Amino acid sequence: MGKMLSKIFGNKEMRILMLGLDAAGKTTILYKLKLGQSVTTIPTVGFNVETVTYKNVKFNVWDVGGQDKIRPLWRHYYTGTQGLIFVVDCADRDRIDEARQELHRIINDREMRDAIILIFANKQDLPDAMKPHEIQEKLGLTRIRDRNWGLWGTHLYFRPMLNPHSVFSVITQLHIQRMRKVQKDKKQMKKKNKHCLAQPHITFIGRSCRCNM
């Protein structure tokens, strides 16, 4: 596994961008992944960044504030991002459509088209919280084509506990799947180009045609 990660990740670093609406629980999740325990947080006005190491790979996780006035600044963090963690408050039914719009705006940006996607369906333990399958439908995840994505249900009080190793294992697997698809597409394109070059070029002139060998 270690050799595979070294081959896939190259420099053994991965940039992860954690986004979502305000009060979704992004910062709490970030420090749970970093420290393995819950901490008291305040609304993020700018950003928090922490590095978490898993199987010799350094995951640089950027947590950016989700207030509506800050969201236009999200795009400045897109460059070089390899993975997106999008956090959703499952108890906030009034803003689930807003979350969907923001998610699709992010993943449709040119800078984010190669990033793998992990949705955190957070606060599953709150009353009337939407279940993961409902979140999948509300966010339109099944309409996401040609992208590697996953859905992870989490609890506000982390019962059961949020296992950092499990989270980064999922991210790693999604990234490996994406890289394998990229390599497969490249091989198919190379084979297609080779086949095209082997074919004679035919130019049509009026009702006759000329074949250039």
Automatic annotation (TrEMBL):
It is a lipid-anchor. One of its GO terms (molecular function) is metal ion binding. It is found in: Cell projection, Filopodium membrane; Cell projection, Ruffle; Cleavage furrow; Midbody, Midbody ring. Keywords: GTP-binding, Lipoprotein, Magnesium, Metal-binding, Myristate, Nucleotide-binding, Protein transport, Transport. One of its GO terms (biological process) is protein transport. It comes from the Eukaryota. This is ADP-ribosylation factor 6. The lineage of its organism: Eukaryota, Metazoa, Chordata, Craniata, Vertebrata.
